[in-house]
Every structure is written in C-alpha cells, then in structure tokens.
Records
---
Amino acid sequence: MALVTTLVRRGMSHDERGEAELVLRLARGDAESVTELYSRFGRPLHAYVRSLVRDAGLAEEVVQDTFVAAWRGAARFEGRSSLASWLFGIARRQARDRMRRAVPETEPVDGLIDVAGGGLGPEAAALASASRAELAEALDRIPAADREVLLLAFAYELSGPEMAEVLAIPAGTVKSRLFNARRRLRAQLVEEELR
Amino acid sequence: MNPRTDDRHPLELLPEYVNGRLGAQDAAAVRAHLDGCEECRTELGAWRAVSGAAEPFSPASVSLPAGLADRVSEAVAREVAAADTARRPGGVVPRFRWLAGFVAAQAPLVRREIWPASTVVMFIGAAVSLIAGSDRGVPGAALSLLAPLAAALGVALIYGQENDPGLELALATPTSPRLVVVARLVVVLAWDLTLALAASAVLAVTNGPAVFVPVVSAWLGPMLLLGCLVLLLSLFVHSSLAIATAMVVWVVRAMAVSGETHIRSFSALADALNSVWQTSPATLALALALLVAAVLIAPYREPFGSRPSI
C-alpha cells in the first residue's frame, strides 16, 4: 500500500489514484487487472504500435507482448510516470525488439533543417493553409522518428514529460523535436508541391 | 533558428495547448495571449493542422482487431501459468528437469578456457601415468597430482565479475547467486570427474582392473577438497588469490608425497598432509564443510566492488 499512500500524499487526482491501485494489483500478480488495463489502454496502445509496426499481425503480437511485459514488470513501476507513458514506453521497446531496425532510433532529428521562407511565421501559415490530405501524405513520408513525436503529441495526446519518458530523452529535447518535426513536415509539403 | 521561447509568445506551450494536456493555469494564460496576438494564432493554426493530419493514426480512427482483448488475456494467462510452475514446480520430475536445464545452461557461461585447459592437464596426467607405468608403486601418480589441480584451477574461475561479464544480468534475475555457484561448480566438477574417470579407466585397461579403485581414490578426495577450498577462497577474496593458494598448497602436498625433501622436520608434516589428502570420510566431510561455507557467503560477495588483484 506504500505506493498508493505516497501517491495520495503527493496530491494525486482521483483518476491517478485509480491508476496507482491498478498498478498495485498488477504488481501483486492479479491477472484480472490486465483486463482492466487493456480496456483503458488497449486501443491507444494498439494505434501507437500500428504507427510503428505497419504489419497488422506483428502489431497485434507487440500489443500482447506489451501487456505481458507490463504484468511482469508492474513491480518496477514506481509511480514516477503516468501509466500511459509507462505502457507506451514498454510498447515502443517491444516493437523495437521485434523489428530491430525498422522502428526509428530517435537520433537524426536534432539537426535543424532549412525551409524555404525562413522563419516560423511563413512556415506556420503554410501549414495552416495546407489541405488535410496534403498534410496526411507529408506526415506519411517524413522520417519515422519525426512522425513518431508528432503522433505521440497529437494522435495519442501525451504531455511533454510523458513523451520524454516514452522516447527516453530529456523534456527540453521533446520540445525541439516537435518543432523540428513540424519543420520537416513543412519541407515535405514544399517538396511535394514542387513535384 | 530555434523556436522562440520568450515570455511574450508562449510558443513552446502551444503543442500541449492543442492536445489538451496543458494545465488549467497555463491554458488560461495562453488563451489570453492568443486573443491579442495574430502571430501566435497563426502558430496555433499550424499546430492544429498538424494535429488534424495525425487524426488517421489516433485511437479512435484505428480499428481494434476483433479478439485482441482475448488474445491479450490468454497471453497473460500463459505467462501467469508459466510463472506459477517456475515458482512451484509440480512434482519431482519437472523440478529435476528444470534444475538439470539450469545446470546445463551454466556451461556456456563459465570461462571457455576452463574446458580445454582442464582437458589438456588431465591428458598430460594420464599420458605420464601411462608412460611411467606401475614400476613406482601405485600407477597413476601423475594423474593423482594433476587431476585435483586441474579441477581447482577451473573452479577458481566460475564466479565473479572478473570471470563472468554477464554476472550483472544474472544477479538481476530472481535466481539465487547460491544456486548459480552450485550449478557452475557441478558443471565444472562433472567435466573434471568425467575426464579423470576416463583417464583412470585407461590406466585400468593397461594395468589391470584391480588398479581402478586405488587410482580413483588417489585423486577423488583431493580433487573435491582442493576444489571446495578454492571455491571458498575465490568467493571470499578473489579468483587470483584462490589460484595462488591452490598452487602453494598443492606443491607442498606434492613434495610431501614424493618425499623429495631433505628437511627432516618436514616428514612429520608430510605424514599429516598425506592423511588429509585422501579419499576418506573425513576429507569428504571437510570438503563439504568448505562447500557449505562457500554457498553461504556467495550472495555477499561484492560482485563489482574493488577487490585485490594479485
């Protein structure tokens, strides 16, 4: 019960307390709690894994592995992160294990790239005025690591600290990654217009 | 150019503002700022556009495969069952099978040099014994000198960070270090016992079956005693000290056996030493006591701390 008491003392919301109790049941080896975990996180985890692993069958296996690993590793969940980011992190590692190279190493996105038009203003305006279909196509074509950070923010709605945990990078780096990924999306749009 | 982070334009907060993960206070501040800032509204529009592009990947848009929930439950149930069997092996046979598998799994983990090194030493012992024949008393004198030493040197190297780069991993598993030590001892000693028994059998073939038991008893007790002594020392202090001690102890013993010393007072010591290095109940009990001590201290060995390297 120590974990829950600590979390409660830290001033957690009701929802977060529910999460902490769920983890506690997992850690005690209660297999039933996996069903509850799945009903809460199965859908977002599956969507995330599908964005990493394009093969549907393989993605299902990764989702299964993720829940097995969560059940096995629940004792190591220390309540310092949210349940969602913990599970996303596990899913990411499981996907990588399955794919080795196909899932992005989060390396190459830190170098800034130049975009025609220079500053943020025109870039932002161009993105805002692009059609959704164009943007979706560009999103599909940018490097996987850039796509991943944008999806974590906007498709899976993780907070900055949660994204930092999933990607295993500092919180400050998450912000620059987001901006870089957005620039690359814009560059991809330009490239497709020129084609 | 880096995203501007000055106080007036809350650019860094916009992604979380868009995905709804910004705290209420920050969100209110951003909203107030947006009212009066055309530039930031454009920025917001850009992030909203990106967010819209991400929509097809969102949980609501990706269809969840039918039956995935069941397959997840089944996978976890299998894991639960596997964990249960590992925790409570049902019956003697599965338990033994698990233990046998565990012991066998140690073979690739101990230092690879152990196997060829002990084989060569045993081979030399057998070869010299064969060549020397039985003209100097009991056949197999060379074997009885070399076999315990070969085993002891191998045993000195079975545990510890200096011998096992994967030890950190092994220690992270729920398997007790005691079990690991015993399993590795069993693997290495089994190899040495097999070799020494084979060598003794060869001697029995050439010298007659009657010599088999005396030959075996000449090395068996000493091998176990020296092996357990070295194990204890390697766990308690360091492999290198264990090896050095084994060498010294064994050279002294060898001098006592051969009687090739001119120091008169040494003969009393030699007799005492010879009575220890036998295959006798007392020797085996002593070996067992050393083994128990080694197993007891195994978990307390500092696996990565600085240890004297001699």
---
Amino acid sequence: MLKNIQEWLLMLAIFGVTALLGNWIGYDVIVWEAVPGMLVLIGICLVGLILGKVLPGSIPSVAYVALVGVLVSMPWIPGSSFIVETTSEVNLLALTTPILAYAGIAIGRSWADFVKLGWRSIVVAMCVMLGTYIGSALIAEVILRFQGII
Amino acid sequence: MKQELTNLWKDWRLHTIVLAIVLLTETIGTHSFTVGPGVVLLLPMLYAIIIGLGLFFTPLIKEKQSKNAEPLIVLGVTLLIAKIGVIIGPSLPQIIEAGPALLLQEFGNLGTIFIALPVAIMLGLKRESIGMTHSVAREPNVGLIMDKYGFNSPEGRGVMAIYIFGTVFGAVFMGLISGFLATLTPLNPLSFAMASGIGSGSMMAAASGSLVAAFPQMENDILAFAGASNLLSLSTGLYMSIFIGLPLTEKLYDIMTRRKSTSSRVEKGA
C-alpha cells in the first residue's frame, strides 16, 4: 500500500511539473502561483485512489476522485473557497495537453490495427461520434430551453 | 509488479519527450480558422497527440516508452477528473437544477444508431454494422459485444473497428467537431457541453476544451456540465447499451435489411 502511494505520488508529481510548465507558457500563470492548486489536485487524487483501493466493491478509483473533488469544493463546506481559488490557477487545457501527448505516444502501437480498418469503417466511425454528440446536444437543448435555463 | 512500476517513473526519456512536446505545443498556442459560418479550433492538445503519434515512428520512442505511457494517461486523467470535481462542486446548485436535461441527454447517445446505422448499411456492411453503431464503442461496450457475440464474430469485428478509431482519432475528431458545431449551429454551448460527456476522458477533455476555447466566458459552466455528463455516461453507458442500444440496433438492422432485400427482389422481378 505504502509502495503504491509512493508510486502514485511520484508519477502525479512528474505529470504535475509538466502541466505547470505548460500552464505557464500557454496560459500565462507563473509556475509558483499555480503550485498550491496543483498540490491540492494531487492530494484529491491520492485520497480518491486510496479510497478506491481500500473500500470494498468494484467502483473505479476515478469515481472516488471525482466524489472527493466535488465534496471538498461544495460551497457549504468550510475551506472550499481556498480549494476553488487555488485550483482555478491550474488551467484545464494545461492538464489535457500532456495527457494527449502521452496518449499519442501510446496509440502508436494501435496504428497497425488502424491502417487495416478500411475507409468504410472510418466513415461509419465518424458518423457514430457525430451521432452521439448531436443527439445528446439536441435533447439537452430541448430540455434546458423547456426549463428556461438557457 | 514492483519492478515494472519503479521503471515507470524512471523512464526519463518518456517524460522528457512529453515535456518537450508540451512546451512546443503550448508555445505554438491556439489557432483557429473559419469554415463557412463555423470555427475550427486547433488547440495545443491536438498538436500534442499528433506529434506524439509521429514520434512513435522515430527511434526516439521505443516500444517500452509507448507501453509506459499508458499508466501515465490513466494518472493524468485522474488529475483531470480531480480538476473537474472541484469545478463541479461550486456549480452543484446549477447542476442539480439542470439535472433533468443532464439525465435525459444520455438518451442522445442513441443518436449514433439513427445516424450511423443507415450509413453502415448503405455502405454494404452486414452484421458488422450492429457492433459498430450500437454505441460509441468504449471499453464497456466492447466487453458487452464480445460477451454476447464473441471476439471473432462480425459484430465483434465491427465494435473493435470503432473502438480502434476512437482510441486513435477520437480526441482529435471530437476536438475539431465540437468547436465547429457549437459555432456553426444555433444550439447553446451548454447543450454541447453536456453532449461532450460521452464516457471517454480524453474525448471529453478534447470536446469540452474546444468549447471553452470558443466560449471562454462560459468556462466553468461548460466544464461542470461536461464533467457531470461524462461521469453519468460512465456509470449508465453499459446499461443503456444492454437494455436499449443493442436491442434497438438489432431491430432496426432487421427492418432496414429486410426492406432492402425485398426491394431488390422486386426490382429483379420487374
């Protein structure tokens, strides 16, 4: 368990450093101003990951991470304003760039399978994604308008 | 296991390359161009995935780095989920208020059947089209199809094809179309934000990231709705496929192929 925590911490730290540098270059947030926010986020991840490991049941760790994140930032929780303010310095897009950089490197191994697909599969795949995206957006639009939210 | 993980954070070649990619792509920054009335956004994350893929084919990246990258994606997504969690928290009252829309738009994921199934059949695909179009083909859906039809079935090949496309190009594709559709159509960005949560962390990040870049003043609402919708999709996606998506696809497939074969028989007869 202790070994696990150590590994998670190290890898989150490596990822965090990369994201903070991207956050600085891409979104003009000076590195040390975003450090507290990154530490808070890493803390939330660790608590969620540990809960996922310790608690029984097959609920994935990310669900606990999301839950912890939501709980500590709810307006009626004392100290939530600190969490919200510090983490707002860490830009979401600064986190996604390194994720997709790692993803690009990882999917190289799926490339051979990809070229075998053929054009018909690719056309259908695009329709699949377009379909779910537009379908969901249309329903959301209708309901949100009906409720008068937008 | 210990050996494996210890090597993971010691893979400085991998982390240095990723850092270099991030610094390069963030320096290039966001660019956009217009296509008709819509805007196509080119974000650093899109260059990052393409550069990463390109580097895989150079001697810089070896099989080992590519393997080691996978757990880093998982941890990166965990960090992203934590960030989305702290965006959802303060917006919880709005999210509860938008609860009905959030829940019902999950049914929009069935839109894939109505749009993609006719196309697949038109292109001459047979039972592959059932595996291809019953859902967005993420891990739980692949598992369902394999369980029901087997790995070597036409349905299994179909779902794998979409899964592979989604893995390789899902994020790029979603990133490009989400900003484009949101600027092209009269639909509200918040509706698209909810639609961005399709049950894949990287696709959600790309789609909602593009929306934020197009509508920066709505950043928190977009991310909160996208994040909440993604969590909902992750938890309901499989059941949606089991009880509605797959039976509906089977039924529509039967209807469409029967009509097709009767009409061709009529043509031959005439």
